[in-house]
Design brief:
Elements lengths: L1 E2 L4 H4 L5 E6 L3 H17 L2 E8 L6 H10 L6 E8 L22 E6 L9 H6 L4 E4 L5 H11 L5 H14 L4 H16 L16 H8 L3 H14 L4 H19 L4 H7 L7 H9 L3 H8 L2 H8 L7 H13 L1
Parallel strand pairs: 1-6, 2-5, 2-6, 3-4, 4-5
Helix pairs in contact: 5-6, 8-9, 9-15, 10-11, 10-13, 10-14, 11-12, 14-15
Length: 321
C-alpha cells in the first residue's frame, strides 16, 4: 500500500501498523512520523523503542523479539532511523516478521530518496506495509500542504498567508515551516496581523543562535525564561533543536558541508557559525543528542513519563560542553 504525506490520513489505519517512510523531503518525513506516532498513541501504544541502524548488529533478533511482544504486555512500537548511506541489507528481511496478524507497530524512517518497486523484498513488504513517499511536492501540492499547516488561522485569513509564504519560499518547505511557526507564535498571542512576534522576553528561535555560538550562559537564560513564562513553547523548542541537530548530522555525512546546510534550510548568514559549531562538537555527541529528540517530543506531549524541562537541560549541557 502506497500513499504520500497529503493523503496519509486515509491509509494510516488500514492493515498492520507497519510504515516505511522515505523520500527527499526531510520535513515531510519527520511530519509523517509525528502523525503516525500520534495515531499510535491514541491506539494505546505506550512503549516507543527508537533504534538507529548504526547501533543494530542484529535487526533480525530485534524484530523477532518485537513480534513476540513486550515483556510488560504493553503495545510496543519500534522506530528504525536510517539516517544516511545505502539501505542496510538487514532491511531486506523485515517482511519475514510482518504479516496481517502483526499486533505491534513498526516505523522505518529511511533517508533513501527512492525505492525500487520491483525489488523482491519491497514486493513482499508491500503486502503488509504502508509506504509513505515524501518526494518533492508539485506547486499545487505545496499549497495544499501549506493550507493543512495553517489550521490555526481563520479560513478568511488562510488564502492571504498561503500566497505570501508560498511566493517567498517556493520549493523550500523548511523555510515555509519556519514562517508558519512564527505566524503561529503571533496567533497564540492574538496578533496574527501584527509585526511583533509576542510580548515575551524570548522566543524559541532565539535559542538557535546561542547554541551554535556555544554561549552556555545565554542559552540557559533564554531556555529558563521560556520555561518560567511561556512553557507552552515546549513543542517549538523541540522542533528548533531537532532542526538544528538534523542539519548538523546530515552535514557530517556530506562532502559539501555548506551545501548540505543550505539544503537543510539554514540561512546563509548562519552557515559559517554552523560550520564552527559542527567542527567544535564531536560527531558522536551530535548524533547522540539527535537520537534524544523523539523522546523529548514524546515527553513534551506527556506520552512518556519524563520531565521535559530537565531532559532538555541535560541535552543542552551535553551539547555545549
Amino acid at each position: 500500500m502506497k500513499c504520500n504525506p497529503l493523503n496519509l490520513d486515509k491509509y494510516i489505519n488500514k492493515g498492520p501498523k507497519v510504515f516505511f517512510i522515505y523520500g527527499s523531503e526531510i520535513i515531510l518525513r519527520n511530519q509523517s512520523k509525528e502523525k503516525i506516532l500520534n495515531y499510535l498513541s491514541s491506539e494505546g501504544f505506550e512503549e516507543i523503542l527508537n533504534v538507529f541502524t548504526d547501533d543494530i548488529s542484529d535487526l533480525d533478533g530485534l524484530l523477532m523479539q518485537n513480534t513476540a511482544g513486550s515483556l510488560f504486555a504493553n503495545k510496543q512500537c519500534i522506530v528504525i532511523n536510517h539516517l544516511n548511506g545505502k539501505t542496510p541489507e538487514s532491511f531486506k528481511n523485515i517482511h519475514k516478521y510482518i504479516d496481517e496478524h502483526y499486533s505491534n507497530a513498526l516505523i522505518v524512517m529511511s533517508c533513501a530518496e527512492k525505492i525500487s518497486p520491483s525489488a523482491s523484498w519491497i514486493k513482499e513488504l508491500d503486502k503488509n506495509c504502508t509506504f509513505v513517499t515524501c518526494a518533492k511536492l508539485k506547486s499545487f501540492e505545496e499549497k495544499i500542504w501549506l493550507k493543512s499547516r495553517l489550521n490555526f488561522l481563520e479560513e478568511n485569513e488562510k488564502k492571504k498567508y498561503i500566497e505570501n509564504i508560498y511566493n517567498l519560499n517556493q520549493g523550500n518547505l523548511i523555510a515555509q515551516q519556519n514562517e508558519i511557526n512564527l505566524l503561529e507564535l503571533q496567533n497564540i498571542n492574538g496578533k496574527a496581523g501584527g509585526s511583533d512576534v509576542n510580548n515575551a522576553e524570548y522566543i524559541p528561535f532565539d535559542l538557535e543562535d546561542m547554541i551554535i555560538k556555544k554561549d552556555k550562559k545565554n542559552t540557559f537564560k533564554i531556555l529558563h525564561s521560556i520555561r518560567d513564562n511561556n512553557s507552552h513553547y515546549g513543542p517549538l523548542i523541540t522542533w528548533v533543536l531537532g532542526n538544528l541537530l538534523n542539519a548538523c548530522v546530515y552535514a557530517l555525512s556530506s562532502n559539501n558541508i555548506k551545501g548540505s546546510l543550505q539544503i537543510s534550510g539554514v540561512f546563509n548568514n548562519k552557515i559559517n557559525q554552523y560550520e564552527k559549531f559542527i567542527k567544535s562538537t564531536s560527531p558522536a555527541r551530535l548524533i547522540k543528542n539527535q537520537k534524544k529528540i523523539v523522546n523529548l517530543d514524546l515527553a513534551c506531549k506527556g506520552i512518556i513519563k519524563k520531565d521535559f524541562w530537565k531532559e532538555i537541560d541535560y541535552c543542552l549541557i551535553d551539547l555545549l560542553n
